[in-house]
Each structure stands twice: as structure tokens, then as C-alpha cells.
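hi! just following up on the protien thing from before. the input was this:
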Amino acid sequence: MNPEEAAQQLGVDPSLLTAAPPAPRFAETWAWIQQEPPCSACGQPSRTSSVIHAPTHGPRWFDRCRDCFIATPPTLPGPPSQLVEDLREVAAEAGLRLRIHTREDGWRDEL
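and the predicted 3d structure came back as:
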């Protein structure tokens, strides 16, 4: 699920979240995480942060602890096979060796 769906499932009120940049760069997200914000749902120490876009409140930081993240896992934008193909393509373009593990095939080395 996407972050907005996760916030809704966890019962998070976007109006109570801190304003965030609309599309934070990695450095901005990293700086936010270094402040050790509490989980937006349960208050435990957060392990991941993202930005939700609430229609009436704008972009807000959405932080999840380990348990809340596991309860609302992100979905891949496509099937895992497409992700593997994308990784293969990028690795080939960069001239990198790729090693992939799948439940079906185990570890596979590719050049």
C-alpha cells in the first residue's frame, strides 16, 4: 500500500503531523530521521519516514515504527519479475555484477 493508505489504515490524523517538503531529497529525509521522530501511529521510535499528501493539509511527515511498517507494507509498483528485469538492466548499463536471490531459484550470479 502507499503511504496515504498506510496512514489511513493506522488511523493517523494528517492534521497532527509535521509539515514536510512535497518531494524531499534523500538528505532531507535522512535529516528528519536523525531527529528520531516517534511513530505517527503508536509513538514508538520510528524506523522509516515518508511523506503523505493530505488534500486539506498538504505534505506531512509520516513516520512508522518497525511493527507499524510491517502491518502496512509498501507495494511494489509492478510484479517482482519486472523489478528484477529493471535491476538487470541497470546493472548491465553500469557494468556491475548482479547477484539475485529468489525463492524459486535461490542465488544466481549474473554478469
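The chain has four helices and four strands.
The beta strands are 48-54, 58-64, 98-102, 106-110.
cheers
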